[in-house]
Amino acid sequence: MIIGLLITDRIKESGRTQKVLSQYAHIIRARLGFHEVSEDVCSRVGVILLQLAGRKEEWDNLVAALEAIGGVEVRTMNFEI
Question: Over its length of 81 residues, how does the chain's per-residue pLDDT go in tens digits?
Fold first, then answer.
């Protein structure tokens, strides 16, 4: 499963988001984040892409925990292999 996160205010929500991601680190296979506007400036809006491993039950718990954070929008993609 792939999860995309849009964080509307990184300064305000980064602590809670990082706490949840750390709690579920055992199922996060890859993590990629974007927030730079230029080499010198970081945006308050951020995007994180996660590739998950593990069981669907754990994925659902992670998504629920992220959706409970105000200012974080969650989208999921699941590919049948």
Answer: 999 999 987 777 788 999 999 999 999 999 998 876 666 766 778 899 999 999 999 999 999 999 999 899 999 998 877
Q: Measuring CA to CA, which residue among 5, 2, 24 is closest to residue 14? A: 5
The per-residue DSSP string of 14-80 comes to HHHHHHHHHHTGGGEEEEEEEEESSSS-EEEEEEEEEEE-S-HHHHHHHHHHHHTSTTEEEEEE---
pTM exceeds cut of 0.90: no
Domains of the chain in sequence order: 2-77 (3.30.70.1150)
